[in-house]
TrEMBL record:
<dbReference type="GO" id="GO:0003746">
    <property type="term" value="F:translation elongation factor activity"/>
</dbReference>
<dbReference type="InterPro" id="IPR035649">
    <property type="entry name" value="EFG_V"/>
</dbReference>
<dbReference type="InterPro" id="IPR009000">
    <property type="entry name" value="Transl_B-barrel_sf"/>
</dbReference>
<dbReference type="InterPro" id="IPR020568">
    <property type="entry name" value="Ribosomal_Su5_D2-typ_SF"/>
</dbReference>
<dbReference type="InterPro" id="IPR000640">
    <property type="entry name" value="EFG_V-like"/>
</dbReference>
<protein>
    <recommendedName>
        <fullName>Elongation factor G</fullName>
    </recommendedName>
</protein>
<dbReference type="GO" id="GO:0005525">
    <property type="term" value="F:GTP binding"/>
</dbReference>
<keyword id="KW-0648">Protein biosynthesis</keyword>
<dbReference type="GO" id="GO:0005739">
    <property type="term" value="C:mitochondrion"/>
</dbReference>
<dbReference type="InterPro" id="IPR027417">
    <property type="entry name" value="P-loop_NTPase"/>
</dbReference>
<dbReference type="InterPro" id="IPR014721">
    <property type="entry name" value="Ribsml_uS5_D2-typ_fold_subgr"/>
</dbReference>
<dbReference type="InterPro" id="IPR041095">
    <property type="entry name" value="EFG_II"/>
</dbReference>
<dbReference type="InterPro" id="IPR005517">
    <property type="entry name" value="Transl_elong_EFG/EF2_IV"/>
</dbReference>
<keyword id="KW-0342">GTP-binding</keyword>
<dbReference type="InterPro" id="IPR004161">
    <property type="entry name" value="EFTu-like_2"/>
</dbReference>
<dbReference type="GO" id="GO:0003924">
    <property type="term" value="F:GTPase activity"/>
</dbReference>
<dbReference type="InterPro" id="IPR047872">
    <property type="entry name" value="EFG_IV"/>
</dbReference>
Length: 439
């Protein structure tokens, strides 16, 4: 048993990697070809192939950012030009070093299977570098959206510089860790893939940057969507002396079929020039802005297609602002008719518990409105697989330890956003309305 959070068992794990895992040439590695919709490509693992290297770790050194690269194919040399496939940037390798703990050994080149570090390369953890002849990545460029957020701020205002430095570094290290600003409260919001994910970063801010931070209550990142088509026909007209505002938009909104890669589509189906073409981008911008905050609980609306079929403009009073406002009000007007629902993040949870506690743990999963999809035996342990709403998983680590006398363990990863039940939706809507009234 070990804990990355408490730095327990990490060293024995690394010793095991060295002693028991196969050497690079004994393993088949796959890259994802970005020119062929991330089709898997087997890497030959030879120095003769094109360079493919993964940036798997970033470190702040005395000479700037130190980027650790694991070479999967080809050769990298000091002075070479390499391409970051994720960003498209071409970079020169100014210095190539081999790391021995915290000591550096300058080298001229490195081959397949080696781990080296380079200076002066601006990238994020998980970026892939090639020699430019191929567009392979070692990890998917489709980063999942965060499912949980919490407000955070340094206890002391004097720690603001170190606090910002920590957040900037963590964003580069981990694409699933996001930092934003709440426009209403002006609070810093960090978002990630779960409660423990965010707890680890809060602890790292304290341990590595010596910054004590106060955090708010974790907040699940719900979404909204629509379930049926609804039409809109809205005229925005305002006259208050001088040039007025005039813009009319007509069309419909409808749900995008499940499984689609796009979350928002805007389709201009207008024939002719009833709305001048230079106003169309403003209309699209207005609909996007309106979809950022649904009327149910104020969360973003996704799986949404908007079709613009007709409209009207005025020779003098029409403007980009007028049509943008027309789009915003048109969306709000027809949204309720599209039967919106709230989507919640559902997690894939895998538990390993002694068989004697299987019934208790399974009953607790059901109480949390989870669905058990698998139950296997592994010696004296039961392996339970379940889909559980993230909103019901707060404090689960403590609960599982209590139920299993400290012998149970679990892993959790994001699966999908699914509609909540009618009762839960009404509860969330009422809570949201109460909070808005209190403001």
């Amino acid at each position: 048993m070990g804990s990355a959070f408490k730095n327990k068992g990490v060293q024995p794990l690394l010793d095991g990697v060295l002693s028991y895992l196969p050497c690079p040439l004994e393993v088949s590695n796959y890259a994802l070809d970005q020119t062929k919709d991330e089709e898997k490509v087997v890497l030959s693992g030879t120095p003769d192939g094109p360079l493919v290297a993964l940036a798997f770790k970033l470190e702040e050194g005395r000479f700037g950012q130190l980027t650790y690269l694991r070479i999967y194919e080809g050769v990298i040399r000091k002075g070479d030009f390499i391409v970051n496939v994720n960003t498209g940037k071409k970079i020169k390798v100014p210095r190539l070093v081999r790391m021995h703990s915290n000591e550096m050994e300058d080298i001229q080149e490195a081959h397949v299977g080696q781990i080296v570090a380079v200076f002066g390369v601006d990238c994020a953890s998980g970026d892939t570098f090639t020699d430019g002849s191929v567009r392979y990545t070692m990890t998917s460029m489709n980063v999942p959206e965060p499912v949980m957020s919490l407000a955070i701020q340094p206890v002391s205002k004097d720690s603001g510089g170190q606090f910002s430095k920590a957040l900037n570094r963590f964003q580069k290290e981990d694409p699933t860790f996001r930092v934003g600003l709440d426009p209403e409260s002006a609070q810093t919001i960090i978002s990630g893939m779960g409660e423990l994910h965010l707890d680890i970063y809060v602890e790292r801010i304290r341990r590595e940057y010596k910054v004590d931070a106060s955090v708010g209550k974790p907040r699940v990142n719900f979404r909204e969507t629509i379930t049926q088509r609804a039409e809109f026909d809205y005229l925005h007209k305002k006259q208050s002396g001088g040039q007025g505002q005039y813009g009319r938009v007509c069309g419909y909104i409808e749900p995008i079929p499940q499984g689609s890669m796009t979350k928002f589509e805007f389709d201009n189906m207008i024939v002719g020039q009833v709305i001048p073409s230079n106003f169309i981008p403003a209309i699209e911008k207005g609909f996007k802005e309106a979809a950022n905050s649904g009327s149910l609980i104020g969360h973003p609306v996704e799986n949404l297609r908007i079709a613009l079929t007709d409209g009207a403009a005025h020779a003098v009073d029409s403007s980009e602002l007028a049509f943008k406002l027309a789009a915003i009000y048109a969306f709000r007007q027809c949204y309720a008719a599209a039967k919106p629902v709230i989507l919640e993040p559902v997690m894939l949870v895998e538990l390993k518990v002694p068989t004697e506690f299987q019934g208790t743990v399974a009953g607790d999963i059901n109480k949390r409105k989870g669905v058990i999809v698998g139950n296997d035996q592994d010696g004296d342990d039961s392996i339970i697989t379940a889909h559980v709403p993230l909103n019901n998983m707060f404090g689960y680590s403590t609960a599982l330890r209590s139920m299993t006398q400290g012998k149970g363990e679990f892993t959790m990863e994001y699966k999908e956003h699914s509609p909540v039940s009618h009762d839960v939706q009404m509860q969330l809507v009422n809570t949201y309305k109460a909070s808005k009234t209190a403001e």
